[in-house]
Amino acid sequence: MITILLALAAVVGMNWPVLRAQTQKTTALNNMRTIGAALRLYTADHLDTLPRRVSEGDKWPKLLSEYMDGTQAYAAVGDPNNFIAQKTDPLSNKRNNTSYIMNGFSDVGAYKNQEVAVRMMQIEHPSETILFGTPKSGSTHFYMDLVEGDNGNHVDVLNLELYEHGSTYTFADGSARYILRQNYDHRMWLVNRDFTLP
Description:
- With 198 residues, the chain is α+β, with helices and mostly antiparallel strands.
- The protein has one domain.
- The protein is built from five helices and five strands, in the order ααααβββαββ.
- It has a five-stranded mixed β-sheet.
- It starts with a helix and ends in an 18-residue tail after the last strand.
């Protein structure tokens, strides 16, 4: 496969690092679409409710895996700490071993109250609301919380440049997009557009 990619790069005049970055980005987008599709199937089976954040019990990787064909999509190419490279369990409920982090819905109270059930119908702008992003290498957070302090908020946890000068995200409408760091806006994680960040 690598030989074919190198030959293709030579034919089209691309250098190998550029082609590799493009391939990684495309694979990441496909993975994130797979996770987005699994999430939509999950909500269809659970009265429109997204996986709740809980102290005990199954976390989102395990819950969504029932709607996926294996766990390969949980390993982002380009993430040196992905579960395949590290030989860890992507379905662990103790620490997040996937290459992705889910919206913690801090703005609708889920951060303080784990009983809060966020429904898809609450998300008024699904094509503009991020549900999954990529954490920085080594992060074990299941959820991205805009209101959490050091080592928990988007500044400390999110990898905004996993692929060249941007990263990939899954949105509530099931789409996946690559966003350059310069175009990234942390308010895209908000369900409540009027929420005031601390």
